[in-house]
Amino acid sequence: MKSTFxxxxxxxxxxxxxxxSDKKEKKVHGSLPNxxxxxxxxxxxxxxxxxSTGKPVTLESLQHDFDELSWQTFIALNWxxxxxxxxxxxxxxxxxxSGLTVWQSWKSSREIFLPDGxxxxxxxxxxxTPIVCDSISAADLKxxxxxxxxxxKTPNVLDESGEPFQTGPLIDQNGNYTRYEILTNEVMFxxxxxxxLYSYQGQETFGEDADFPFSDPDTGKEGAIMxxxxxxxxxxKYDARNFHTAYALVYDNPHEQAGVKSSCKLVKVGLVGFHxxxxxxxxxQWIWSTFEHVANAPTQGEALNRSFYNYHDPKSTYPVNEPxxxxxxxxxxxxxxxxxxxxIPIDADAKxxxxxxxxALEKMFKGSVWANYxxxxxxxxxxxxxxxxxxxxxxxTFLANATLETYIQGKVPQTSSNCIACHNNASxxxxxxxxxxxxxxxxxxxxxxxxxx
Length: 453
Ligand code: HEC
Fold this sequence. Notes:
Elements lengths: L2 H16 L40 H19 L29 E2 H4 L18 H12 L14 E2 L20 E6 L1 H9 L5 H7 L18 E9 L11 E8 L10 E18 L2 E11 L54 H17 L8 E9 L12 E2 L23 H5 L23 H6 L1
Parallel strand pairs: 2-5
Antiparallel strand pairs: 1-3, 3-4, 4-6, 5-6, 6-7, 7-8, 8-9
Helix pairs in contact: 2-7
Bound molecules: heme C.
């Protein structure tokens, strides 16, 4: 039993009380016209707890409250940011679909876990890009491609092309591999650096379970947040105007699969999937939110309602939710597109909430790309202090993002995607509990110490 949990038992009653009287500041940037969207707050502040709306409070009402929190978090993290990651003031959310967002200014996994367990650069100081990317970024920065959108910031490097545990890559309608990146906020990064968890030896010396700081509604202090994003190349069948876009250095990483050759291209990509995990005082198992682009895939059992899907061609005879045949190599172009279907439907309440937010976002800024995103659901611990179940009895039991857990959707116990249950298995390089993140497993051995042994 982790010590956090013991402390949290003390807070549980407080949490239940606090949930009813939300004291967080609610800033409304811009005004919303009348209608059923008038209670939508579009703000850059990240909620640290739910606002309880249920009378009486039920599992369903709490699910609704967590889903509201997810939307609020999604908006706050996608808020236009200055290069230092602080949210820009006096902007209309949705105005600049390719500008830098708060989370895009965070540290990525490849900047934190360096070769030979080296100490990462300080927050705000960028890491060098992979050598093969250097010439490209310099040339393009010079002719202004990037400076147009991301002043002073080297584009993020997308260096992963597969889903968890080699379940497979996801191929888009142009035959390209979907690319992924993982980033953490400053609080999470600071904890890793302070405790030297960026290296194998550091974790060994640390010698206990990881216990990241949580967001505290009482002090307003932000805790650990980590995100994982899925992107597709904006070309061919995709219309960039429908997506949140960015310039990224798309890197084929030789360490990912046998046979992959190091290569790097500057590419305009569009956001198709987005995971957020946020550790809060009330939810030490973290709150797991997942969003997708609305056109990703149709839902099994529901009628096709679009003429085009990002990952589904009705005419394709390719088997549904099947990864491509091996060998996998992100450099391969023209791979048969994956035919994706959503297995678990989005529930009616989340659908209504999505409509409410999409309408509000569209009202705030006509043509806002953010109105093209939807919440799939939020997984949260219904019994955070449970002694018998370290995962805190998550609800819903199963949750998957069609672009991030494509091949493990569904409701098969022990098999289908359950965010908290799977992440509960994550450990550090020494086998100790990593506090629900797979990031710490990436720590490498420091070379000097290695030699001395
Ligand atoms: C079967 C196990 C599994 C399931 C289910 C799963 N993940 Fe993960 N997740 C991983 C692994 C492994 C990584 C590390 C990177 C990788 O291999 O893709 C990861 C990475 C992440 C990250 C980046 C931080 C980290 O720990 O590396 C976030 C955030 C995340 N997942 C959120 C979610 C959410 C939200 C869900 C549920 C909708 C979910 N995951 C379901 C295995 C899983």
